[in-house]
Specification:
alpha/beta; 9 strands; 5 helices
Length: about 180
C-alpha cells in the first residue's frame, strides 16, 4: 500500500526541476493537495494503486495536435473511457487529431510521454495549448494528476483546478462530451 502525504516532499533535492516548479506554483496559489510516490506509471493500469489509495479519479491526459500540427490540445478525460479521435475532432471542429510529438510535449508542457498533466500548463506561457475537459469529470470532487513526473500522483480538488489554477495560468477550458460507446 502506498503512503499518502500532505503537500510537497520534505526533501525536494531528489525531485526534478519541473516537479519542484509544480509544487512551488501550487503552494504559491494556496492549493492544497495529497501526494503518493510510486513506481513509474506508464499506463492507466499502472495508476490504479495511486487512484485507489488517494480515492480519486486518475485522468487520461493526452496532448493532441491537428493534422497540420498548428493547433495543440490537452485532453483530460476519465481514465477508463476509450478515446475516439474522429468524434473529438468533429466536436471541436478540428482537422483529424493525432497524438502530438514528444518534442512538443516537452516544449509546451515541460514533460515527457506518460507524465502529461494539466499541471504542465504552467509552462504554456504562449497559450498554444487549448485545454479540453470531458464533462464526465465535472462530477468529481478530486482529480489525479502527475506533477510532470510519472513517479508521483497528486489529488487536487476539481474546484481548485477550475477556479484557482486555470485562471492563474491563463487558460479557459473547453468542455467536451466524449461518448462511451463503440464508435470510432
Amino acid at each position: 500500500m502506498l503512503n499518502v502525504k500532505e503537500g510537497r516532499p520534505a526533501d525536494s533535492a531528489a525531485r526534478s526541476e519541473h516537479e519542484t516548479a509544480v509544487y512551488d506554483f501550487l503552494d504559491g496559489l494556496g492549493i492544497s493537495y495529497r501526494r503518493v510516490d510510486h513506481a513509474p506509471a506508464h499506463t492507466m493500469e499502472d495508476c490504479r494503486e495511486a487512484e485507489e489509495t488517494l480515492g480519486i479519479t486518475v485522468c487520461k491526459n493526452l496532448l493532441l495536435a491537428n493534422r497540420q500540427g498548428t493547433a495543440h490540445y490537452l485532453l483530460l478525460m476519465p481514465g477508463d473511457k476509450p478515446f475516439r479521435t474522429k468524434t473529438l475532432s468533429a466536436e471541436i471542429g478540428s482537422a483529424r487529431l493525432s497524438f502530438d510529438t514528444s518534442e512538443n510535449l516537452a516544449r509546451l508542457l515541460g514533460t515527457y510521454p506518460g507524465a502529461a498533466s494539466i499541471l504542465g500548463l504552467i509552462y504554456d506561457r504562449e497559450k498554444e495549448v487549448q485545454l479540453l475537459i470531458d464533462r464526465d469529470l465535472l462530477g468529481e470532487e478530486f482529480l489525479g494528476a502527475h506533477p510532470l513526473e510519472n513517479t508521483t500522483s497528486l489529488a487536487l480538488r476539481l474546484s481548485d483546478i477550475l477556479d484557482v489554477f486555470l485562471p492563474a495560468v491563463g487558460h479557459r477550458p473547453m468542455f467536451v462530451s466524449l461518448p462511451v460507446g463503440e464508435e470510432s
